[in-house]
Specification:
alpha+beta; Arc Repressor Mutant, subunit A; Tumour Suppressor Smad4; six-stranded antiparallel β-sheet; five-stranded mixed β-sheet; 10 helices; 19 strands; RNA polymerase II cis-regulatory region sequence-specific DNA binding; acetylation; immunity; ubl conjugation
Length: about 400
C-alpha cells in the first residue's frame, strides 16, 4: 500500500510550526500570516536552500522521488504555487518576490479558524491550475533558466547541478554567470526597433523597406515632409511609377500630398504610439500579416497632433504564452493603416487608394520562435534575434521562461 498524498494545508502548517525550512515562518502570534521564500533562479545569489519548500512539497506529494526522478525546480515551484492558489481559505497578502535583498511572498488565512481546521481540508489535490494561473505557470518554468548562450552540452538539456550539504540529491541551479533576460531589450528605450514597411496603392505593392528606426519612423510624401519633426522619414513613392490608371494615380497623389508632416510611429516603453501632423486622415487596425482586419473594422483613427497608443507588448506576450500552451490563437502584431479614406470594412482592402502595412520584425521573430517549437510540445532549439543584439540559441522552455519574466517586469 502506498502512502496517501497529504493535503497541502495541514502539511504546510506542520512545516511552519516545526520551523524545519529556512525562511518559511509564521509572521504573527495568531499564526494567520506566514512567509515563503520566493527567489528567482535567475539571481546570482540563488542557493538550494532558497527552494527547499518547493522540493519538500514535491517529495511529500509524490511528484518527485529522489533517485528516480529528474529534479525539476520550475515544476516544483509552479505546482506549489498553484496548490496554494486553489485554497479559498488562503490569500496572497504581499508579493515581495522582486525584493533585491529578501524575495518572498506573504500568505494569510482569511479566517483565523481556517488554520486550525486545516486538518479537515478534503479538497482534491489535483494538478490542474486555474485559468489565472496559466500565464504565471509558463514564466515560472522559464524563470530559473540561464540567460546567456548555452554550450553545446547544455543545449542538450545537461544543465549545471549543485549538491546541497543538507540534501542528497542535486537540484537545478542558475547559470553561474547569468546576464539580463535578452527579451528585455524590447523594453529598452534606446534600443531601436526594426520595422518592415510595405505600401499598397489600390492593391498593388508600390514600396517595401525594412529599416532600423531610432526614434521611430514617419511616413511622408515624395517631398519628405518637415525634416525637423522626430522620426526617420520614409518616403512613399510617386504612384506613377507603378500604376497605369491615370485617374487612380491622381487620387493617390492627392492622398500623399496631404500627408504634410507625415504619419509617425514610434516605440515608447512597451507600447507603440502614433501621431499625424498632416491633413490626411488615417485609420488603423491590427490584423494578419497578409490581410488587414476588415471584417471587424478599424481600431481607431490616428489623431492629429496628439499621441495615441496602437500596440501594447504585454498583451501580445501574454497571448503568445497562451498560444505556446495550446490556445490555438496566435497573437497579432501587424499594423495596417488606411490613408485618406475610411477603413475598408464594407469593401475589399485592395480597392483602397493607399494602405500601409508595418511589421515590427522583433515581434514576428518571437512568434516564429514559438511556431518553430510547434507551439505545443516545445522541445526544439530556436535562435533568438532581437533587434541588433547577438543571436542566442535557446531551448523552447528557456524561451517560455524569458517571456514570463518579461511579462512580470513590465510596468502595467
Amino acid at each position: 500500500m502506498g502512502t496517501p498524498k497529504p493535503r497541502i494545508l495541514p502539511w504546510l502548517v506542520a512545516m511552519l510550526d516545526g520551523g524545519q525550512l529556512e525562511g518559511v515562518a509564521w509572521l504573527d502570534e495568531r499564526r494567520t500570516r506566514f512567509r515563503i521564500p520566493w527567489k528567482h533562479g535567475l539571481r546570482q545569489d540563488a542557493q538550494v536552500k532558497d527552494f527547499g519548500i518547493f522540493q519538500a512539497w514535491a517529495e511529500a506529494s509524490g511528484a518527485y522521488i529522489p533517485g528516480r526522478d529528474k529534479p525539476d525546480l520550475p515544476t516544483w515551484k509552479r505546482n506549489f504555487r498553484s496548490a496554494l492558489n486553489r485554497k479559498e481559505v488562503l490569500r496572497l497578502a504581499e508579493d515581495q518576490s522582486k525584493d533585491p535583498h529578501d524575495p518572498h511572498k506573504v500568505y494569510e488565512f482569511v479566517d483565523p479558524e481556517a488554520r486550525d481546521s486545516s486538518q479537515l481540508d478534503t479538497s482534491p489535490e489535483t494538478e490542474e491550475g486555474s485559468t489565472s494561473d496559466a500565464q504565471e505557470d509558463i514564466l515560472e518554468l522559464l524563470s530559473d533558466m540561464a540567460l546567456v548562450p548555452l554550450p553545446d552540452d547544455m543545449a542538450q538539456g545537461q544543465y549545471p547541478q549543485l549538491l546541497s550539504p543538507n540534501l542528497d540529491n542535486p537540484i537545478l541551479c542558475p547559470n553561474p554567470t547569468p546576464s539580463e533576460n535578452p527579451l528585455k531589450l524590447l523594453l529598452v528605450p534606446e534600443e531601436q526597433w526594426e520595422f518592415e514597411v510595405t505600401a499598397f496603392y489600390r492593391g498593388h505593392q508600390a514600396f517595401q523597406q525594412t529599416i532600423f528606426c531610432p526614434g521611430g519612423l514617419r511616413l511622408v510624401s515624395s517631398e519628405a515632409g518637415d525634416r525637423k519633426l522626430p522620426g526617420q522619414p520614409i518616403t512613399l513613392p510617386d504612384p506613377g511609377m507603378c500604376l497605369t490608371d491615370q485617374v487612380v494615380t491622381e487620387y493617390v497623389r492627392r492622398v500623399l500630398d496631404s500627408l504634410g508632416g507625415g504619419l509617425a510611429l514610434w516605440q515608447a516603453g512597451q507600447r507603440l504610439c502614433v501621431r499625424r501632423w498632416g491633413h490626411c486622415h488615417a485609420f488603423w487596425a491590427i490584423g494578419e500579416e497578409l490581410l488587414p482586419d476588415c471584417e471587424h473594422g478599424h481600431k481607431g483613427e490616428v489623431p492629429k497632433d496628439v499621441d495615441s497608443d496602437v500596440f501594447d507588448l504585454r498583451p501580445f506576450v501574454t497571448d503568445l504564452i497562451a498560444f505556446m500552451e495550446g490556445s490555438g490563437h496566435s497573437p497579432r502584431y501587424t499594423l495596417w493603416f488606411c490613408l485618406g479614406e475610411l477603413w475598408p470594412q464594407s469593401q475589399p482592402w485592395v480597392k483602397k487608394l493607399v494602405m500601409v502595412k508595418v511589421v515590427p520584425t522583433c515581434l514576428k521573430a518571437l512568434l516564429n520562435m514559438a511556431r518553430s517549437g510547434g507551439a505545443s510540445s516545445l522541445e526544439n532549439t530556436v535562435d533568438l534575434h532581437i533587434s541588433n543584439s547577438q543571436p542566442l540559441s535557446l531551448t523552447s522552455e528557456q524561451y517560455k521562461a524569458y517571456l514570463q519574466d518579461l511579462v512580470e517586469d513590465m510596468d502595467f
